[in-house]
Amino acid sequence: MNSSFLRFSSITKKIWMAFLGLFLMIFLVVHLGINLCLLRDDGGAWFNAAAHFMGTNYIVKVFEIGLFAGFIIHIVLGIILQVQNWMARPVRYLVSNKTTTPFLSKYMIYTGCIVLVFLIIHFMNFYFIKLGWVSNVNISADGEPEFYIIAKELFANPMYSILYIVLFIVLGFHLNQAFQAAWQTLGVNHPQYNVCIQRFGTFYAIVVPLGFIIIPFYFLLIH
Amino acid sequence: MKLTLKIWRQKDAKSTGKFVIYSLDGISPNCSFLEMLDILNEDLIRKNDDPVVFDHDCREGICGMCSLYINGRPHGPDDAVTVCQLHMRKFKDGDTIVIEPWRAKPFPVIKDLMVDRTAFDKIIQEGGYVSVNTGGAAEANNILVGKENSELAMDAAACIGCGACVAACKNASAMLFVSAKVSQFALLPQGQIEAKQRVKKMVKMMDELGFGNCTNTYACEVECPKQISRSNIARMNREFMCAKMV
User: Fold this and answer.
1) Residue B135: what pLDDT?
2) Sorting pLDDT into bands at 50, 70 and 90, what band is A88?
3) Running DSSP on this structure, what letter comes out for residue A220?
4) pLDDT category, B50, cuts 50, 70, 90?
5) How far apart are CA B186 and CA B179, in angstroms?
6) What is the least distance, in Å, from the CA of B169 to any CA of chain A?
7) Cβ separation of B214 and A14 shorter than 8 Å?
8) What is the distance in angstroms between the Cα of A202 and the nearest Cα belonging to chain B?
């Protein structure tokens, strides 16, 4: 507990988690927009062009640093807060808590960890290939990874597609709680707006993961 | 009513406790939960046994002393009441009732079901007050307070500091308690002078005492016998951000 990072107050850590969580939610929409290019029957021209743009544009590269910092800080803070929470109750109750609380709100750390595992798999399959950390046969003559072919091959594997679908359902549950919790943490709680925040969070948590889930279905059933 | 009680017994703060099972017969459904424990204790004293130690004082639901975790819920199965206002009609004949003390690192068990809640006093000492000069009483209408703010401040001030929020929270977080104490002053002009210092010092003390962090499950709000709203937590977060930035 001597690290200066840990000495931030509980509220400061939570505010950063909430702020970065909302930032990551914005990024997820951008990512979905690129992924939906996979649904165009153009041999991956749009998808590869979008991937090339994201990999070469300097403004995007600056945002990329912020994005990775956001991911790492969000994850590290989540783990620190959770460890502190476990330490706050060294002796557990015999009867587990029967209080009615929002669905899965008690399990954010677990849904978050599942998403983290998927994130690592996802990086291994795509981002680390771009960096040259993981080898792949689908590299074009000019040294660019053929992301469309890589994605197509991955989604052709039913096990990967099922894993992808399940993980996005878990992400949906994580986001449904996270959105309204983030605003509460940032101090936004008003009877006039609470319902809107709750509904938008649920809408986002259904629509965005659904957008991602359509892609493996397209490759498994149609393409 | 015939009941089986499974009660946490612990000789003192340093001892290792255990659950002890007691049987009770002939309990009236109109009896309060604490009266039922009184009957058990009278029975134990008659048998030369050590009575079960538990906190209680006013038995009117206003002092915040009673603090029992009953069948997985702080203050038992009834909503918006303290244990002293809980009646045995909320249970069924033949029920097994598990009674535990509040469990949190900052609330160590003193004996049996009694816990030390000095941690809350320490938080209050950090800023749960307003400093005023003594002297002649000022004209009441000198400082006007809006109706909405006065209502919200009164709602926050209804917190009796029983600790059910900490007991209910899966993280043993005291955010609802601290936020109620911050809010009751933050909403009134009299509380503005020390507002920034208050929120920073109270949150610092809360963290130092080892309470957990809020993860927005809102179990605290559900179990609070005075129905303190989670909007107070959002207000405290706003107050904290402003105090840190300005």
Assistant:
1) 83
2) very high
3) I
4) very high
5) 10
6) 9
7) yes
8) 16
CB spacing of A99 vs B244 below 8 angstroms: no
B88 alpha carbon, distance to own chain's centre = 21
Q: Given CA atoms B74, B78, B81, B87 in this order, what sign does their dihedral have?
A: negative
Rg, chain B, Cα only: 20
Residue the block writes with tokens 């938080």: B123
Q: What are the helix (H) ranges across chain A? A: 10-35, 45-56, 58-87, 108-122, 128-131, 147-156, 158-185, 191-217
Residues A213, A35: contact at Cβ < 8 Å? no
Q: Which residues on chain B are in Cβ contact (under 8 Å) with A180?
A: 216
Tens of pLDDT along B142-178? 889 999 999 999 999 999 999 999 999 999 999 999 9
> Could you tell me if A95 lies within 8 Å of chain B, comparing CB atoms?
yes
Torsion sign across C-alpha atoms A160, A162, A163, A164: positive
Which band of pLDDT confidence, cut at 50, 70 and 90, is reported for residue A141? low
Phi/psi of residue A7, nearest 5 degrees: -80, -10
Domain ranges of chain B: 3-110, 117-130+142-245
On chain A, the residues whose CB falls within 8 A of the CB of B216 are 105, 177, 180-181, 184-185
DSSP three-state, residue A209: helix
Chain B within 8 Å of A193 (Cβ-Cβ)? no
* Cα angle value A44/A47/A63 (rounded, 5°): 160
Fold classification of B3-110 is Ubiquitin-like (UB roll) (3.10.20)
Distance (Å, rounded) from C-alpha A55 to C-alpha B11? 66
Asked if B222 and B72 count as a contact pair (C-beta separation under 8 A), the reply is: no
What is the topology classification, in CATH, of domain B117-130+142-245?
Answer: Fumarate Reductase Iron-sulfur Protein; Chain B, domain 2 (1.10.1060)
Q: How far is B137 from chain A (nearest CA, A)?
A: 36
Confidence band of B95 (pLDDT split at 50, 70, 90)? very high
